[in-house]
Amino acid sequence: MSEAATGESAVRVHTAVLAIGGNLGDRLANLQSAIDSLADTPTLAIAWLSPVYETAPLLAEGADPQDDYLNAVLGVTSALPPDMLLMRTQAIEEALGRTRKIHWGARTIDIDIVQVDDLVSDDPELTLPHPRAAQRAFVLAPWHDARPDDVLTGAGPIADLLAALGGAAAQGAARRDDLELLLP
Ligand SMILES: Nc1ncnc2c1ncn2[C@@H]1O[C@H](COP(=O)(O)OP(=O)(O)OP(=O)(O)O)[C@@H](O)[C@H]1O
Ligand SMILES: Nc1nc2c(c(=O)[nH]1)N=C(CO)CN2
């Protein structure tokens, strides 16, 4: 986190990693819409964007089969405090038709806050870092492509976490270089 003096008040700029994914409708268009909406957010700037991965769905125990997801990861800076960032990501999910009926159900778009600065919180409304990120190749693989030296707060280098899962392919995650997301 950095502080920029602006007259009388100081604005805290947070650095966050966001994971986006979806497996309903036009998956690439939905990811692009999420990116466009994030970029439209006051004070928020997208610093980097990963390649797109197609990933086998992680399902809840006993769940019906689902289609594959498209996933990507992006880094942002923003003056929004973490709770306001969550409000914004949830508003974007709703605007893109996300419903919350079934745990890990199929969805048009999901935006997870993977980490913010080096904050650690067990607040169920916003747990930081995201409690399941270290086990998810659909987060680690695209993140690692974009930022190979990054560290997941409290868990370690993402390169090591991905290796511990056996790599992307072992987890059903395949990079789709034919699918392009654009930064607005
Ligand atoms: N780091 C986080 N990022 C996003 N939501 C979070 C986070 N920590 C806690 N939550 C809370 O989790 C709740 C459920 O979110 P959501 O329905 O998107 O979960 P999910 O994406 O289906 O599952 P998962 O959290 O395993 O990815 C939200 O209401 C939100 O308040
Ligand atoms: N492949 C994949 N599976 C999932 C995903 C996801 O983004 N990708 N998100 C889930 C809930 O957040 C549940 N399962």
UniProtKB/TrEMBL annotation:
Top-level EC class, please?
A: transferase
Among its keywords, does the record have Oxidoreductase?
no
Q: Which reaction(s) does the protein catalyse, per the Swiss-Prot or TrEMBL entry?
A: 6-hydroxymethyl-7,8-dihydropterin + ATP = (7,8-dihydropterin-6-yl)methyl diphosphate + AMP + H(+)
- Tell me where on the tree of life, at the top rank, the source sits: Bacteria
Q: Pathway, according to UniProt?
A: Cofactor biosynthesis; tetrahydrofolate biosynthesis; 2-amino-4-hydroxy-6-hydroxymethyl-7,8-dihydropteridine diphosphate from 7,8-dihydroneopterin triphosphate: step 4/4
* Residue intervals of the 7,8-dihydro-6-hydroxymethylpterin-pyrophosphokinase domain: 103-114
What Pfam families is this protein classified in? HPPK
Which GO biological-process labels does this protein carry?
Answer: folic acid biosynthetic process; tetrahydrofolate biosynthetic process
The record's section on SUPFAM superfamilies has: 6-hydroxymethyl-7,8-dihydropterin pyrophosphokinase, HPPK
Q: Which UniProt keywords apply?
A: ATP-binding, Folate biosynthesis, Kinase, Nucleotide-binding, Transferase
EC nos? 2.7.6.3
Q: A GO molecular function for this record?
A: 2-amino-4-hydroxy-6-hydroxymethyldihydropteridine diphosphokinase activity
* Protein name, UniProt field: 2-amino-4-hydroxy-6-hydroxymethyldihydropteridine diphosphokinase
What species is given as this protein's source? Catenulispora acidiphila (strain DSM 44928 / JCM 14897 / NBRC 102108 / NRRL B-24433 / ID139908)
